[in-house]
Amino acid sequence: MNATGSALGSHVLLDLHGVAPPLLCDAAALERVLRDAAEAAGACVLSAHFHGFGAGMGVTGVLLLAESHISIHTWPERSYAAVDVFMCGGTQPMVAVRLIQERLLAPRSTVRECERG
């Protein structure tokens, strides 16, 4: 917490297990999911960069937000995705997290949240 006793932002780490490997290889689909999550959370997307590492390989991607960022790194060979949601201001990062969980159909996930600032 900052000197005023309130956090400046919320940083959420989301581990998704059991995600279908084809989805974890699809950079365009993952970008759509993260954009939808940012919008649902009330964030403003400034730019995006997503990179697929080839057929059957994972994706790394990031949305730069006016309120910070959302990033994803995938390992289709392990049916696993690591997602980072960091937002400040009047956004709702847990709304973004829930949407990502739902859209990636992860049967098992772990959420860790910490206040920043």
The gist of it:
The chain is α+β, with helices and mostly antiparallel strands and 117 residues long.
Structure description:
With 117 residues, this protein is α+β, with helices and mostly antiparallel strands. The protein has a single domain (9-116), classed as S-adenosylmethionine decarboxylase. It is 26% helix and 43% strand. It contains three helices and six strands, in the order βααββββαβ. It has helices at 21-24, 27-40, 93-104, and strands at residues 9-17, 45-52, 59-65, 68-75, 80-88, 108-116. The protein has a six-stranded antiparallel beta sheet with strand order 2-3-4-5-1-6, with helices on one face. A hairpin with a 2-residue loop joins strand 3 (59-65) and strand 4 (68-75). Helix 2 (27-40) runs antiparallel to helix 3. It is globular, with a radius of gyration of 14 Å. The N and C termini lie close together (5 Å). The model has no long low-confidence stretch (mean pLDDT 95).
